[in-house]
Amino acid sequence: MNILKFAPLYMLILAIFTFFNIKITAAEQSFNTITPSTPVIYLQGWEMVKDIDPNSPIPDYSDFSWIKVNSSLNENLYSEGNWIIKTSIIIKDSLSEKTVFGMFPSGFITAYQIYWDKIIIANNGQIGINKANEKPGLRRFNFVLPHKLMNPGKHEIVLRLSNHRNISPWKWFYGTVAIGQYDFVLNKGLSNDYITLFILGVLFVAFFLNLFLFISRKGIIEHLLFSFVCLLIIFDYSVSIAPKIFSFTNTYIHFEYYFYQFNSLLFVTLFPTFLIYYFSLPKKTTVIILALNLLVYFLFTDIFNIFDILSLTVLILSTALTIWALILRREGSIIITIGLFISWAAFYFNFAFAGLSTTMAICTSFSIARQFAKKETAEKEAQLKSARLENELLKKNINPHFVLNTLTSIIVWLRKDSASAIKLIESLAEEFRMINQISSLKLIPITQEIDLCRAHLKIMSFRKGADYKLETLDIDENDDIPPMIFHTLIENGLTHGYENKSSGLFVLQRIKNQNSVKYILTNDGEFNFEDSETSTGFGAKYIKGRLEESFPGKWNFTSNKLDSGWQSTIEIKKKL
After folding, report:
1. DSSP structure class, residue 95
2. What whole-number distance in Å separates Cα of residue 29 and Cα of residue 42?
3. Which residues, including other chains, have CB under 8 Å from residue 423's CB and lie 6 or more apart?
4. d(Cα 21, Cα 313) in Å, to the nearest integer?
5. Phi first, then psi: what are they for 388, rounded to 5°?
6. Cα–chain-centroid distance for residue 407?
7. Which of 221-225, 249-253, 425-429, 444-448 has the lowest mean pLDDT?
8. CA–CA dist 263, 271 (Å, integer)
């Protein structure tokens, strides 16, 4: 499935949402209005003029000197220097003394004074005529408006400011001034802070959970990717809430600008990448994701819409990948889909980044925990199955029939050749000892398995008066395998292929390639037609059970008749 097929649809949806997400404002008001019931307003209708003498009182500039502050301003001409901006408000009716109003300027850099009807009422930082004598104000700055100033009628608000620290695309005239009921605005800010702290708590849990799973589950990459996703969002919220905890100057906004740009671009790339790994989709899709994100970033975003556009981008990409996973019936895709529905709703209600991050952190963590629980249950079932197989195997190898035949052989050899009888007893004791040592282990060195096989062949050679041998080719002594899998194959081969033969050769060969290791065991036995089908008896079930326990989902086992003998192949795939 080629994700490039989604590109036209993506562009169409992006255009539609961009259009509908544009904040349509009414024709610019000449005046801002405050009534007793007004909770908060953002002042509009600003005009600006160059401050030609910052050390003198504000002069009366002619009406022709003022320039409207709007998007048509030449940012290069009006970025650095000393400026005066003004607007007017109208207070309708008398305001109750019990209702306290405040002023909340934000986003202005670097230092400014605020005047109310030509009376200075606030000073944030120290205005200067150059960078040396300019002192930046605080990033978080608000104050109460004295009730005596809030008389009914028209009032003029003036900001006198200086900015000689233009170190990012953020301009001083992007700032805003809000006037509102002091308790209302503060409580609203506190509510947002509580939400932020709650989200940070959720994300910290998700971050540490996935980091722990990455370490404990032997480097499964999707856990590391999602822990990075959570960490990016933690950084994002931490940077936004830091000025409310620490006293940063308002030039901190330059750092915020660059950080949010970089962090957002990382997030919209990393989260879809996590989904690609989580749903086991083609890894090359990551390159397409990165290319689309860069295309959107450079062609569709600006300083005002970047977060809306990038939030929309990550939602569209994540939705496309999740639909793909749904079609392929990938585990966890339904839970992620539910999370994306909630995230789309959060985007619609202008809660995009916080809603997406929180919802996806919760849903993805739940999905990972559910997947982990299912895998743990499967591993326990595999262990129980392995234990049952182990008991059955011990009973099979130490059963009365085997012991009786071996003891009979010992009696025969005692009469014929006591030295050979002693060797048979020693071989039998050695095989029982090794079986007792390794039967409960999950993996053993392949050399130990080969020694066990040779001990069994020695016993069977004595018992049947035959000559059975095992040869090995290209065996790596560092390999570990489940116990008694080759022993079981050799035992089956002796049972079904050497009834009428007094000699036999088993050959175990190891073949390594880029993606797997194969062990091929062949013998020269004589097998009839009924034995030519792949074994479905106890031996095959034991081998498959042991392989699944040690290498879940990463093995193959085949066993087939050859023109002159039998061949069994065990393939163990490497971790991807």
Report:
1. P
2. 12
3. 458, 462
4. 13
5. -65, -40
6. 62
7. 425-429
8. 12
* Rounded to 5°, angle at Cα 29 from 25 and 31: 145
Residue type present at position 322: T
Residue for token pair 């050979």? 420
- H or E segment at 288? helix 285-300
The C-alpha atoms of residue 216 and residue 239 are separated, in whole angstroms, by 31
Task: Single out the residue of 508, 542, 543, 502 nearest to residue 525, CA to CA.
Answer: 502
Burial class (CB in 10 A: 0-12, 13-18, 19+), 312: buried
Q: Is the pLDDT of residue 473 over 60?
A: yes
Q: Which of 463, 176, 192 minimizes the C-alpha distance to 353?
A: 192
CA angle 121, 127, 129 (to 5 degrees): 150
Q: Maximum Cα–Cα distance for the chain, whole Å?
A: 131
Say how many residues make up the chain. Answer: 576
CB 44 within 8 A of CB 28: yes
Picking from 85, 87, 82, 86, the residue whose alpha carbon sits closest to that of residue 51 is 82
**CA 239/CA 229 separation, integer angstroms:** 16
Structure tokens at 57: 């009182």
**pLDDT beyond 70 at 78:** yes
**Shortest CA distance to 206 belongs to which of 239, 228, 182, 190?**
228
User: Radius of gyration over alpha carbons of the chain, in Å?
Assistant: 39
Distance CA 433, CA 367 (A): 46
Q: Residue 383 and residue 295: Cα distance in Å, rounded?
A: 50
Is pTM beyond 0.70 here? Answer: no
**pLDDT given at position 289:** 92
Q: Mapping DSSP to helix (H, G, I), strand (E, B) and coil, where does residue 94 land?
A: coil
Nearest partner of 457 among 436, 427, 416, judged by Cα: 427
- Kindly give the pairing relationship between strand 503-512 and strand 467-473: parallel
Which of helix, strand or coil describes residue 48?
A: strand
Contact 241, 189 (CB under 8 A): no
- Cα dihedral 103→108→113→116 (10° resolution): -40
Given a contact cutoff of 8 angstroms between Cβ atoms, the answer to whether 488 and 495 are in contact is no
CB of 188 within 8 A of CB of 174?
A: no
CA distance 2 to 282: 10
| pLDDT for res 282 | 92
First to last CA, the chain: 21
Q: Confidence band (pLDDT; 50, 70, 90) for 436?
A: low
Q: What share of the chain is helix, strand, coil (3-state, %, to 5)?
A: 50, 20, 30
Calpha distance 167→257 (Å, rounded): 10
Packed helices 306-327 and 352-397: angle between N→C axes, nearest 10 degrees: 30
Amino acid at 117: D
